[in-house]
Amino acid sequence: MERPASTCASPTRTRRWRVTTSPGIGAKPMSRRRDEYLVSLDLGTATTRVAIGCWRADGSLILEGYSEAPTRGVNRGLIVDAAAAADTVAEAIAQAADLARVRVCTVLAPVGTPFARALNSRGCIGITHEDKLVRASDVQQALAAANRVSLPSDRAVAEVHGQGFAVDDVRGVDNPIGMACGRLEAELHVVSDSLSAHANVRQAVRKAGYHLERILYGPLAAAEAVLTPEEKALGCAHVDIGAGKTTVSIYLGGYPRYTRVLPIGSQHITNDLAIGLNASVADAEQVKLRCGIADLRRPRNGDTCQTLDVPLADGHGPQAVPLWRVSLIIRARVDEIFELVARELDRGGSSAAACRRVVLTGGFCRMGGALAAAHRALHRTVRLGRVEMPSILPQFQSEPVHAVVLGALGRGRFHREQKSDRRFEERGMRTMLKRVAGWL
User: Measuring CA to CA, which residue among 334, 339, 372, 379 is closest to residue 357?
Assistant: First the structure.
């Protein structure tokens, strides 16, 4: 029997920033009386993924539906054909809804286009109380001062994330309430993106017959889900290499410090193979996944040359392509991607510790040898990131490619938590400081 999902559209509200730090997917939310459903839509360049999670009354988040569909109408993370993109959204959501046996009304959309930019904002106030002790109202004033960020009219705020407080000259303070000082400073990490790109995503979801509950910044949703608290505290970079773009997020002291989107991804490898081998894009994609990232050299005279049969683009019989040639094409583009990533790590790392560790996610990780290639190119400790989430789907296994769509479920859960908890002052400032910044 069909179960209605608690994801129906809600009325439009005035948006305000409310700043906290992320509790992660395993955090205990406020008590509720019934289960709720969250639907995450990752409209990628090559593949659209939909995940449906059940936020149960006991606080657990369980994956109950998942689907993938080839993306149409999207290029390098941007919608270029609204009708085709809407059809993709409708197809992917319908498949996941059938699997989970729920009726979907609203969805969460993790987005991060090549136009995304981030800045760190600070707001400072003086403490004028006679006892010089920081109160909750002082924290709110400091956050409001940091919130005053001027953006061009063609940009929209995609995410606001707290970076802690400074009490006089002491930085890295998570909860300043009750501390004595003369000056309180709040720090925020603000990510903005293309306003028109967000509007196109909203329009595609609406044309597909659904309401967009919230746009999230996908790279930070993934980073919050795959990085451990220790990695975020000591310094770590999250690198997500998708089909059309690569994102770099650097954490230090428990908070995001630097965010960047690069307009290059694994689809460029596929296109290089299609051109270099005179093959179709579909066949080139199969060659990429089959061969992976290998360091093969051109054989010397007398050595055996391994070959791979690849159909020609015009449909004629297969051609015998030397594997060393395939390796050369793949390695050239992979080296370029990691060269750009290394440049961003050097640019965004405020200290050597901030980028000493790297967690890698995205569809690129499906290529054999991806982890070894990252080690070799970045000269850092690298691991693959996976979201640990319970699931009732027996054949589903969390992989690095699922980081964004599953991470968005966790982000959506605590955003709903914030929305329902309008009286956070009465619950104590400590509760507010443990949640993630979001638009309400």
Answer: 379
Residue 434 DSSP one-character state? T
DSSP result, 357-420:
EEEEESGGGGSTTHHHHHHHHH-SEEEE------BS-TT----GGGHHHHHHHHHHHHHHHHHH
pTM as predicted? 0.84
Task: Provide the CATH topology of domain 3-114+195-218+386-425.
Answer: Nucleotidyltransferase; domain 5 (3.30.420)
CATH number of the structural domain 266-329 = 3.90.640.10
C-alpha distance from residue 335 to each of 277, 339, 363, 384 (Å): 19, 6, 17, 18
Q: Which has more pLDDT, 384 or 313?
A: 384
CB 61 within 8 A of CB 53: yes
Beta strands in 203-301 (DSSP E): 211-217, 236-241, 246-252, 255-262
Q: Where are the domains of the chain?
A: 3-114+195-218+386-425, 266-329
Q: How far apart are CA 269 and CA 45, in angstroms?
A: 14
Q: How far apart are CA 285 and CA 267, in angstroms?
A: 8
Q: How confident is the model at residue 225 (pLDDT cuts 50, 70, 90)?
A: very high
Asked if pLDDT for residue 295 goes beyond 80, the answer is: no
Whose CA is closest to 64, among 97, 42, 87? 97
